[in-house]
């Protein structure tokens, strides 16, 4: 609203200075008048369009010949505006915002149906208010992103919006991995608003403008010198230069003198630089030497026969001052043709050009202003609708507008200056981002703006190197890096106050200094102790102060947590960490029944049962063959028991003769071997293990209990237990010294102490080592994190130091520093309790299943064979059954074969004896069959 009031005040000021409009009103269309009714039914012979630009400028010198040539080509083409001649009225703004505004108002009194220009965004802002009131479409070359179609409905941009150019630069910065840039710009509407869009675009890529170096329009050389000297002291080395083409090269002259065009610097210029180079007759070697390695963007216009023809005709155009032209000449030529095509459609649709007085522009009493000379174009809205709906092809390619009245195909050439010319290293389009393929080809493919799809050819950077510059250096402004260091009270080995020059010492300090020494550039720094030395400081507060720019970094035993990474950047972890539980331990008293502890009760029962089972199976399999497994029942029972338990020591004297018996014994002896070995190992561990004095087995049992828990002062474990594990604050005890560590654990919850302490693993390992391992950790680490150095967001030092820390780890220096400060006489981090060392059935059930399966298979095979023998066996009788009928003998034999007593008799017989019986039975059966065949049957009479 304030800007609108200022513009209206400026307009009234101009009108006050302006001479009476009657003097300046002699160039109206002679055939167009609101008082001439006959003109409404026919096309006018002449229609006026305006052109507003700075003639004597880099852009204006290309625009003017192009506009004049386009008007001549339109008037010479009988297919366009047949019967109507296009007349262009030009006004020179003379690079002045005030003069440009006056010229714009003078142009509007000529009753133009459309205005081409201006190139200045500042003038475009003012004149846009005028054309809104007078309904005259304004086809402008102003690239200011804030010239929106909502505020200025009659403003139509016929060149690529700087909004897209700034997003192209943001993609370039992201492609090369830079995080901070310095923007150098002229503090006018175009420069200020363009850089504002650049900041938004970089933020989406997690980058930023670290400093905005603004210059007043028309700044002197001394002002440029001072600005470049100040930005050269900053750490960012990526410069985005967005200035006017007429004075832009002077920046590089001073930069060259300051050594800012050497290796390590990055210069990205907007489209102003290619505009200067393209429109120059020739660029001398000294100028090219100033801009070696610069990357610039140029409006992309596709190669075509039309464009080649235009270039060949250029030297013959009226008003040509240079033998070359820039991209604005192509846009200007297309703009005139766009107006001509729109007017042609307008007239073909029956449109008439008429103007009428604006009721809001009335002379006040006593005023000398002749405001009636500014008249409203009655058909302006209709012509605007035709213009925005056109879809034609010109020298710049396809010309069509989107809903925001921007050209739909916004694209740039990515140029690299090297040697004596410009080299195209790629393209950028709002369709597919960075690519080495021309946008015209990409438009035929599906849109793809993914990171993996972004490609450019190698660029040559300042200093004639193809290695990508790091994009920043440590600032050479005499200010050392302010590093906050926690003033610890406990575990001073990690970081502590020192009387030396640096003021601090410890493991963390040595790691940081070793990493700094690996950097390719010096990093002046000063350590600032954080805390009062009476208790450990809050590490969350240290990190927060770094984020608030009170310190540049924080070095110490700072854990990398999720909440902290949201506000600062951490380096690669140099120490692995995680929360663990510490409890006191005591020695186990000797017991006469300690030998039973290796196995659980269930394990003892199953093992004993299997000893008996295997002995019984072997007895069954060996009873018929092996005389050692025969005898009176009492003797055989003793044999089974003796054989079973003697296998425990591999001391059995009975030999196994059957194949099945040996098969079972093979599996059983393997099981016995495993059981013996496990028993021995477990018993050894139990006799030397220590037992916890509390029932805490890990974090789960600790949380489920109601006992107090100790937490180190300043540790993130305090908030973690409360916020993540929902532990009541009433259970937590703050431990402020190592002595309190010992006393709290030894007292226990009954004596006013704690049942366990939750702390980070590096502290715990050092604590256990310093106290001769009288305490132990239980359970596993229940968080996984690490220690890192904290820097402000997007600090390049965080990335470089991460690389240095990895180098320290690879070359062994990190371990050497660890051994220097931290004791190697560590304790076992995990205490094995008695219950944990006892062996249960779940560890061996697989072996028992295998052994049981082997026994089952052997028994099945054995009983199948016995049953087959039983079917062939029949007891001997003293009676001869020859005289009995065959059916009776068969029935009695069948009954006898099914007798359980006979089955037991077969099972109990020796194998050799049974074989003799079966052999004799087979012989007798053969004799009976032979005798029966000798008896001839008697035939009936």
Automatic annotation (TrEMBL):
Q: Which residues form the signal peptide?
A: 1-25
Name a single GO biological process: signal transduction
Single GO MF annotation: ligand-gated monoatomic ion channel activity
Give the record's GO CC terms. Answer: plasma membrane
Q: Which Pfam families match?
A: ANF_receptor, Lig_chan, Lig_chan-Glu_bd
Q: Detail the disulphide connectivity of this chain as listed in its UniProt entry.
A: 773-827
Domain annotation Ionotropic glutamate receptor C-terminal: ranges = 482-824
Which UniProt keywords are present, listed alphabetically?
A: Disulfide bond, Glycoprotein, Ion channel, Ion transport, Ligand-gated ion channel, Membrane, Receptor, Signal, Transmembrane, Transmembrane helix, Transport
Q: Does the keyword Amino-acid biosynthesis apply?
A: no
| Record region (Disordered) | 919-941
For bias type Polar residues, the affected ranges are 930-941
Entries under InterPro entries matching the protein: ANF_lig-bd_rcpt, GABAb_receptor_plant_PBP1, Glu/Gly-bd, Ionotropic_Glu_rcpt, Iontro_rcpt_C, Iontropic_Glu_rcpt_pln, Peripla_BP_I
As for membrane topology, the entry says: Multi-pass membrane protein
Q: Give TM segment ranges.
A: 599-621, 663-681, 845-868
Locations listed in the record: Membrane
Question: What does the record give as the function of this protein?
Answer: Glutamate-gated receptor that probably acts as non-selective cation channel.
What protein family does this chain belong to? Belongs to the glutamate-gated ion channel (TC 1.A.10.1) family.
PANTHER family named among the record's database cross-references: IONOTROPIC GLUTAMATE RECEPTOR
Name this polypeptide is given: Glutamate receptor
Source organism lineage?
Eukaryota, Viridiplantae, Streptophyta, Embryophyta, Tracheophyta
Q: Which gene carries the instructions for this protein? A: LOC107759340
